[in-house]
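Researcher: For the annotation table, I need structure tokens for Extracellular solute-binding protein, family 3. Please keep the output clean. Sequence:
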Amino acid sequence: MAVGIIQSEPLGFFNDQGAPAGLHHDILRELSRRSGVAMDIHIMPKARMLVELEVGNIDGAIMFAAPNSDAVAIDAGVTDVARLVALGRAGTPLRRYDDLVKARTVLFLGSTPFGAPFELDERLYKYRVTTYDQMVGMFVQGRANVIAGNMLVLLFQLKKQHQEQLLDPSVFLFGNVANHLFIGKKSPQRDRAAALQKTLQEMARDGAIEQILLKYQGKEWQHFKLHDER
């Protein structure tokens, strides 16, 4: 069974030894071990995954639920839950949504479901990027005071560049959004969806997913205060 995962540290990447690694990679490896379903994991750009799934080049993919994914794939269960946040540069605390408006320029990853009012708010200068690498690089270079996306990914990549000190501890939380394993409706593996969903639920209940998450998350997020006042 061929499964695509997003190419972004720490979700899916190749480590210093050239071996595949990452949160989604490790979740799928454990899912494969428990379910007995052999999985060939493909690390690829986010923009390619839905297309590859739709045309049948891969059987499954881990991604956020959306109308376009629901149209071509079957939900085979939740793999993990992402905190979608806005992180400000030191001195730019984000304690409420209006603080985003004051900051003005926000870098964000296209196709990430931030919801209202952010997606339609014309008061913000929203700069859409295609990868987290690009976003973090631009932030480090001082080209924006706010970055928005998956908190796990943003903190991991800033830590890797030894740039955590750039961040203000007050963080705005858009919400928690689940990643799902989807199996293409054209895939010959589609009948496995229910069984894989049951195994993922077991992994969530017995703490297996949480243990994998801790491997990549560390304790850095505990230094931040999350706010969600609209």
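Researcher: And a one-line annotation?
Model: The two ends are 43 Å apart (CA to CA).
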